[in-house]
Amino acid sequence: MLEDQMWFEPEEALAVAWRQGVDEGREIGADEAEMREVASLPRKDPEKRRRAFSLLDRWESAGMRDGYPWLEPDDLESIRKQREGGKGGRKPVPFLREKVYAAWLMRAAGCLLGKPVEGWYRDRIEGLLREAGNLPVRRYVEAPADGMPEDDDTNYTILALKLMEEKGWEFTPDDVGELWLASLPVLHLCTAERVAYLNMCNGFCPPRSARHHNAYREYVGAQIRGDFFGYVCPGDPEKAAELAWRDASISHVKNGIYGEMFVAAMLAEAAGTSRMEDIVRAGMGQIPQKSRLWAAAAQALDWWKNGTSAAAAVENVRKRFDETCGYDWCHVIPNAMIVCIGLLYGEGDFTKTVDLCLRAAFDTDCNCATAGSVVGMAMGIREADRGWIEPLKDKIHSGVDGMGTVRISDLADRAQRVFESRVQKA
């Protein structure tokens, strides 16, 4: 299980690193036998660590294999050249504070719903829900005692606010890295973020911090970090995706980066429409068309448009990805597909959307938070959502230095000021 890994011991991440390299097209297939041999050595054996570092260094510099079908650049200029529709024009959408407030609230609510069962497999989740008389989902698995407790899914959204308050609209990836080191304890980070953090401590600056010995560089972590950039770019998916790229590129590559751009762009689009198909397509429009993530989102759209049931769509994802494999469980692609399914089949209903995301399993708090955020931005607060909102008490407990416990309403106000700072410069 993921919780058994410390995420900064390279010899414990060999199987993940090998799978990641193969999936992104590296010519490393011949190393599988050696990888398994090294992985089988005793945990504290010095030879295991030495050989693990040797393999990771070799894989990091390995070339691309012939016939690899995907075109997945990391730099922003190349990503934009590979987009489906080219440059997306900015739409005249005003900043609506109440919609941004709803997005913050619904992100927290979705995270809070998924948090108690994070890491559980689907059968166990559904068993708990059934025993509690909460199937389909209509209320929290565990009601909060005092607002939204600290979680990385909300820490990063708050950290993005702090970033733009302190560094402005021209912040750089280096600014993001510096803020991480100043504002978050390392053990508050997971997988790719934790490895990137330690890389930066050891002198590896972005974008090298994202790749060096980072087996988790296409995990879902960046996808949970992009919401705020969408909040402050209403009607401007391209700008939201650009800001998300600057953030994601310090810890992720390829589809890991695209996941954050995809979500930020969806939220920027959701500021001006409630049509979930348009929102998903706007996210797809900011990432390379010949990427695995674009193809996965397109597949979810096809299922929805062709009349595949929600249950069958979820089952299709589960057949392709194995929830018992840590790599699949935390990779950006299956989790992005679950978010798309939740949005498309949920039809703007928060409860229906998070029910789908929760019961699909995989990274439950991440997916419910992301989908909830998009629904909140698109739909605002409806009367039916009050049962989810009121237990939050308008409060999030943050692990971000200098932020502490914050009012969600205050976060919406501060987001508006960030937005207005761009308008004033224009």
UniProtKB/TrEMBL annotation:
Region (Disordered): 28-48
Organism: Candidatus Eisenbergiella merdigallinarum
InterPro entries listed in its UniProt record: Ribosyl_crysJ1, Ribosyl_crysJ1_sf
Name used for this protein in its record: ADP-ribosylglycohydrolase family protein
Top-level taxonomic group: Bacteria
